[in-house]
Design a protein that fits this description.
The protein has 186 residues and is of the alpha/beta class. It is built from six helices and eight strands. The protein has a five-stranded mixed β-sheet with strand order 4-1-6-8-7, with helices on both faces. It binds zinc ion. Zinc ion binds next to helix 3.
Length: 186
C-alpha cells in the first residue's frame, strides 16, 4: 500500500510581500515520480493524497537559514493528524540542507523540501527527507578514504547538497522497519 502524503505548497513572504511559489501540483507530481524511483529498491511507494496551496509564510530571509526552525514554524500551522505532512517551499539561498524533517517521524511525520528547479533535484531532495522520516540517518563520508568516499557520494543520505540517490541494503532494511512504513504498510 503506498504511503499517503499530504502536501502543502507554501510560498514565503517577507513583511507582507508574498514570493510567487515555484512549486505547483504538477511539478510536485513529477518530483514524486522521482521519489518513487529512488525508493523502488525498497519496494516503498508514496502517493499524494491531498495537494493544498497554503497561505504564504511570512518569515524574514535571514531567519530561514535554520532548517529546524523553518520546519517548526511550518508544522505549527497545521495540527498533527494522521497524515504525513510535506511542505514544498521556494529555494532558501542561505540554507545548505535540501530541506528538513523530524527524524524518525518524531514528534510527527513532517518534512519540508526546497525547490531546486528540476524534477530530479526536487525529487532527490524529497526522497532524502522521506528517508529521515523512515529513520534513515545521514551517511558520513570519510574523504580521506577515496574509495569509500566515491561510493558514499552517490548515496541518497549524504548530508547537504548532493546528487546521489543510491540506497544501501542497511538503509533499505531500516526504512522497511520504521514506524512510518509499519503504520502504512509501505
Ligand atoms: Zn538530511
Amino acid at each position: 500500500m503506498p504511503i499517503p502524503l499530504k502536501i502543502y505548497i507554501t510560498p514565503f513572504a517577507e513583511k507582507g510581500v508574498a514570493e510567487p511559489s515555484k512549486w505547483s501540483a504538477d511539478t510536485a507530481k513529477k518530483a514524486l515520480d522521482v521519489v518513487n524511483k529512488i525508493w523502488a529498491p525498497a519496494k516503498i511507494t508514496f502517493v499524494i493524497s491531498e495537494s493544498l496551496s497554503d497561505k504564504p509564510l511570512d518569515m524574514a530571509k535571514s531567519a530561514r537559514n535554520n532548517d529546524q526552525r523553518v520546519l517548526d514554524v511550518l508544522s505549527l500551522r497545521h495540527a498533527p493528524d494522521n497524515a504525513v505532512h510535506v511542505y514544498l517551499v521556494n529555494p532558501i539561498t542561505n540554507l545548505t540542507a535540501g530541506g528538513g524533517s523530524y527524524l524518525h517521524s518524531d514528534p510527527e511525520p513532517a518534512s519540508f523540501v526546497q525547490w531546486y528547479g528540476n524534477d530530479f533535484a526536487n525529487g532527490r531532495a524529497w526522497a532524502h527527507e522521506l528517508g529521515h522520516l523512515m529513520s534513515v540517518d545521514h551517511v558520513d563520508v570519510d574523504y580521506s578514504n577515496e574509495k569509500q568516499a566515491a561510493q558514499l557520494n552517490k548515496n541518497l543520505m549524504t548530508k547537504g547538497l548532493s546528487v546521489g540517490s543510491d540506497l544501501t541494503s542497511g538503509q533499505i532494511s531500516t526504512a522497511k522497519g520504521s514506524k512510518l512504513v509499519k503504520r502504512f504498510g509501505g
